[in-house]
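Running this now, will post back.
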Amino acid sequence: MLIKLLIPSIVAGAVLAGPAAIAADKTVDVSKLPPPADKKGVTYAADVKPIFEKTCFKCHGPEKQKAKLRLDSLEAALKGSENGKVIEPGNSAKSVMVHNIGRIGDEDDWMPPVDKGDPLSKDQVALIRAWIDQGAK
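Update: finished.
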């Protein structure tokens, strides 16, 4: 009887956690990422939004939001996607966004996708890392 009661709870928990929980279990080699940029005072408005405008807005902007992820405002970027947070303020190495734009881990998660655009440069990834490490403000 106890097992019959626990199984629906376990299944419901797995469904609610969804892909974000599965993604959190993936291990990625963060040593393959470029180090964060040395620049201090990195902000979304001055430094990161221009990168996102050029490379991300087509699929994650005001007109289209794949995976319900918007990157056209700081608030939306910090909110994350339908799969959960993609930015961990203060810790770029644990941020799913950095794994994806740095093209480490599962190729299916790389951003932009291989057939949809050129990868971000090492300098762009480094600047986004610095922004996140400095609190993603």
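The chain has six helices and no strands. More later if anyone needs it.
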